[in-house]
Amino acid sequence: MEKPGFFKDRIMPVAVIVAALVVIWYIAAVFLNAPFERDTAARAGTPITFSEILPKTMFQERPVLPAPHQVIAEIWDTTFNKAVTSKRSLVYHAWITLSATLVGFGIGTVLGILLAIGIVHNRAMDRSLMPWVIASQTIPILAIAPMIIVVLNAVGISGLLPKALISTYLSFFPIVVGMVKGLRSPETIQLDLMHTYYASASQTFWKLRWPSSMPYLFTSLKVAIAISLVGAIVGELPTGAVAGLGARLLAGSYYGQTVQIWSALFMAAALAATLVIIVGLAHTAVLKRMGMKP
Amino acid sequence: MTTTPASVVSARDLGLTFQTNDGPVNALTGVNLDVRKGDFVSFIGPSGCGKTTFLRVIADLEQATAGSITVNGVTPHEARQNRSYGYVFQAAALYPWRTIEKNIALPLEIMGYSAAEQKERIDRTLDLVNLTGFGKKFPWQLSGGMQQRASIARALAFDADLLLMDEPFGALDEIVRDHLNEQLLKLWERTNKTICFVTHSIPEAVYLSTKIVVMSPRPGRVTDVIESTLPRERPLDIRETPEFLEIASRVREGLRAGHSYDE
Q1: Angle of helix A258-289 relative to helix A245-254, nearest 10 degrees?
Q2: ipTM, 2 decimals?
Q3: Which of A14, A254, B35, B81 is deepest in the core (most CB within 10 A)?
Q4: CB environment B149-170: b (16+ within 10 A), e (fewer)
Q5: A163 shares a domain with A25
């Protein structure tokens, strides 16, 4: 049997999909950008052929759909050719968003874990809190984000924290749900064992419930960090687009800078992927330390 | 009600009724039993006869609804508070994120033993169950029989004179089971513990016990208590002696008398 190689098993499938997407993207770019060229030619009264249109659709200033190389060039330019402190630098904007994401994620994680502990240990909290936790997520974040910004601004809190709190609003939810399940995951026999030792509730928590919940916690953290980023971006939209990836998206749409929008989107996606990978690595490391079967 | 000091477990007219959605279920009725210090008592009977429930009442994992029971002369709750028994479950119930020695340390940590004493007790109990050298392994690296031995070591690690065992070898194959039964007898001899042992294997009950409690279901009750006449020293081939077979047949009769095979 052939030995499975890293290239064949891991790189190839991804590369094929990416290549296919790029091809589809180029085709779509041609068809979506062609009408503009035709209109321009018609207004000028000069006839234009498809072979003349084709190259022009690749290099428009404000294309409906920018071609992949335009987006890549823009990302390269705004990432490496600008000082990171410059407002034209994508790294600068990404950092603004990332810092709000991380603060919000941190608060959301702590809040989520505390709520889960309360729900698991207190019957009244279980009955009264869980419906509210679920209801909180039925409100569209786009509707509530401006309220949070405005209300906090009125009491003198602005800048990073309001955005972070929108991240928190989204990220605490998967943590609560995952941790309630995780803290309840010990088997009856494992709980009975603690009972026979006359263990206190806190001993049972630290020696049984908490370690049992680790796989659930990390699964929740992966979801939470990704939506924390979404929360931070959404939080940047109603602030008047000062800085951050959300601001780049908003400014781009004001001025029809589709290339800028797409490059901000790709930066956000790359950031999300990186964050999820980091949480995944932490997950593997913790489970390894806990001696889990590989 | 009289409780002599030598009586470790003493039950009088003990009853337990579970309230279920299908109405009350009589798990135990009118159980009278005395377990003396140093006894090895087996509880045998078909499933549903309440043998595990009785063990759980001793351990304060269930509460009796009628009659009375004392463990070491006090209520089961106080006995549990005093950490006066070790419990071995049907499954090993080792915590997968702890190594074997950390699993044995679990009750010691909870009961507040010093680090030095924990170490000494881990070594001693690992030796007692023949697992010396396996302390650093994680549970999944051990066979089922070894895992169950580790769980016995965990129950022996602290100073409880009473060992409650709920079909500890039920999930193991017969060869491993024979071996563990032999080891358990040696361990009982060496530690002078009082053991209550739930099983549904007649040879296992007869081979291990000084006293066999035969139970029958619907409602769960004791139908016979047999004092074993076998010597304390028991090689495995004692199971072919006429004396052994005689006790085994009395157990079988007791089980039959409980109509347990009619349905």
Answers
A1: 160
A2: 0.87
A3: B35
A4: bbbbbbbbbbebebbbbbbbbe
A5: no
Average pLDDT over residues A115-129: 90
Mutate to test the interface with B, among A193, A209, A212 (most CBs of B within 10 A): A193
Q: What predicted TM-score, i.e. pTM, was given to this entire model?
A: 0.83
Residue with tokens 């044995």: B104
Residues on chain A touching B83 (C-beta within 8 angstroms): 197-198
Helix, strand and coil percent figures for chain A, each rounded to 5: 80, 0, 20
Does A190 lie at the interface with B, CB-CB under 8 angstroms? yes
Which is more confidently placed, A255 or B6? A255
Give how far A193 is from chain B: nearest CA, Å: 8
Query: Structure tokens of A278?
Result: 């980091």
d(CA B167, CA B180): 12
DSSP letter at B140 equals G
Domain that holds residue A166: 90-289
- Has residue A77 been placed in a domain? no
A150 in B contact zone (CB under 8 Å): no
> Does residue A212 sit within a domain?
yes
Residues A119, A12, single domain; the answer is no
A119 and A34 both lie in a single domain? no
Into how many domains does chain A fold? 2
Listing from the earlier edge strand, what are the strands of the sheet with B66-71? B23-36, B7-20, B66-71
Partners of residue A192 in chain B, C-beta under 8 Å: 61, 87, 89, 93
As beta bridge partners, residue B87 has B164
Q: End of a domain among A46, A64, A82?
A: A64
Q: Is B25 on the interface with A (CB under 8 A)?
A: no
Cβ–Cβ of B83/A197 closer than 8 Å?
yes
Mutation target vs B (from A187, A191, A194, A198; most B CBs, 10 A cutoff): A198
Quick check: helix, strand or coil at residue B11? Answer: strand
Option in B83, B86, B110 nearest A203 (CB): B110
Nearest partner of B90 among B252, B179, B200, B211, judged by Cα:
B200
In chain A, residues with a C-beta closer than 8 Å to the C-beta of B99 are 291
Q: Do B83 and A291 touch (CB under 8 A)?
A: no
